Amino acid sequence: MEMTKNYFFSDMGVMLGRSLRHILRSMDTIITVTIIPIGMMLLFVYVFGGAIQTGTDNYVNYLLPGILLMAIGSGISYTAFRLFLDMQRGIFERFHSMPIVRSTVLWGHVLTSLVSNAISAIVIILVALVIGFRSSAGILAWLAVAGILALFTLALTWIAVIPGLTAKSVDGASAFSYPLLFLPFISSAFVPTTTMPPAIRAFAENQPVTAIVEAIRSLLAGQSVGNDIWVALAWCLGILIVAYISAMWVYKRKAA
Amino acid sequence: MEQAIQVKGIQKSYKKLHVLKGIDFEVEKGSIFALLGSNGAGKTTVVKILTTLLKQDEGTAIVNGFDVVSKPGNVRQSISLTGQFTAVDEIMTGRENLIMIAKLRHLKNSRQISDDLLRRFGLTEAAGRRVSVYSGGMRRRLDLAMSLVGKSQIIFLDEPTTGLDPEARIEVWKNVRELADGGTTVFLTTQYLEEAEQLADRIAILHEGRIIANGTLAELKKMFPPAKVEYVEKQPTLEEIFLAIIGKKEEK
Questions:
Q1: Binning pLDDT at 50, 70 and 90, where does residue A167 land?
Q2: A48 contact partners, CB below 8 Å, separation of at least 6
Q3: Do the chains contact at A18 and B53, CB–CB below 8 Å?
């Protein structure tokens, strides 16, 4: 350890290079990750959207933030999957028996998740533009959106690390993300919460997806974000810290 | 003689399962040492402790002069591990795998190192192909080649020939011998008696958590009743037949 500290960036570069090759050579995973959110987006815009009253005239604008969160929710399951394979195939053991900075092994996977989810998000935004999404947001607002999404991805990725390290099967490694796909439905991602029964409404208005969706929506619409952005950031950071600590605890027990 | 590995009183339990019940052995520098034992005897646990992947409950292990618990960084500088499962990256090519390891070992001219190893292991032709299309034998060769990047002083091979066909196994044996001839210390585990007999300068038998025998092949033989001369018709084994036929095919 003591002598390997100065190799952090070199090792990180190698790990990241490996992961990026994985992404570029399995573009089908990007397609798999984006196809369901895009399908949802089309379904909601062209089938349900006409009947949904959101108080805005452009339903794609209303919908897009929730769709992006959904894509990230399914995208991170690939991190769990890749980690699981590395554990299974002894690649972790090979790396850990080498004089490298150990933390780069996990961080490589986490940064990969950021990159691949960024690609998915761009693909989805392009499709949204085609079907009528318009934004008056300036460069700062877009940067803020990117920042929130990146933080959200990081938080969920560290959650995904846990099943990736502990799962006994491939299915187990990715099954954890299903609840994440449903969370947007019980939020203001697709419809305003005002028509929901009180108990569900209370849940919907106080769960992270709603705060994040509202913050992104306001940013993209070029409106003031008010409190939402702080609530959204607090959720993302809170989940990130708890998930990171838990994941590192599991990592130390399982692999180090 | 200098010792590459010194193990004293190592104990290890997984929850209630007492896998290693106090084992001691030493491995001479530049020798081939085989740890022989059936499945589940704890061979892999020994390898994991010596390669800093796992901490023992009791006892000390010194690898290349460094304690595995207090100086894991130095130990990792000295060793290379080829685990039980071929730890190769399927999505990358053979060459990329080797270059990755060379870079992680912080070596310059990683390209040259990988080309040399590819040639040595007969993988030059397949170098640009993804590992996912390699045969089992090719993967194992690449796996071994990856362990040789950087010329570690001590190489650990955990069941290096399990799951290989006879030809690939003989190939691996040849590579191991070459390594030892070059001065590398080789620590290997195996469940095949023949493998230990073929390769090892010294053999230790691990059984129910203890080393029950440890010596050269000649010493181990002495522990058992003297050889009797008997005349028995020698039937070729299927392996000998298989290799003979393959050999003839290749001559044509």
A1: confident
A2: A190
A3: no
| Residue numbers in A near B73 (CB within 8 A) | 1-4, 99
Residue B172 in this model has a pLDDT that exceeds 50: yes
Residues A99-129 pLDDT 10s: 998 888 898 899 989 998 999 999 999 999 9
Among candidates A2, A14, A25 on the partner chain, residue whose Cβ is nearest the Cβ of B104: A14
Option in A17, A88, A97 nearest B79 (CB): A97
pLDDT recorded at residue B130: 95
What is the number of structural domains in chain B?
A: 1
Contact B52, B72 (CB under 8 A): yes
The order of strands in the sheet holding B154-158 is: B79-82, B154-158, B185-190, B32-36, B202-207, B210-215
Measured distance CA(A224)–CA(A137) in Å, rounded: 11
Nearest to B162 by CA among B45, B48, B49, B37: B37
Which residue carries 């590992």 as its tokens?
B131
* CATH number of the domain within which B16 lies: 3.40.50.300
CA distance B15 to chain A (A): 13
Task: Please answer yes or no on whether A93 and B83 come within 8 Å at the CB atom.
Answer: yes
Pick from B131, B62, B70: which is nearest to B95 by CA? B131
Residue B107, domain member (yes or no): no
Q: Looking at this predicted complex, what is its ipTM?
A: 0.85
DSSP helix/strand/coil, B13: strand
**B58 in any annotated domain:** yes
Residue B167 lies in a domain: yes
Residues of A in contact with B106 (CB under 8 A): 7, 10, 99
Distance from CA of A81 to the nearest CA of B (A): 14
Size of chain B, expressed as the number of residues it contains: 252
Closest to A93 (Cβ–Cβ): which among B81, B91, B146?
A: B81
**Is the distance from CB of A93 to CB of B76 less than 8 angstroms?**
no
The pLDDT value given to residue B249? 64
Whether B73 sits inside 8 A of A21 (CB atoms) is: no
Q: Which domain holds residue B45?
A: 3-88+157-251
Contact (CB<8Å) B87/A100: no
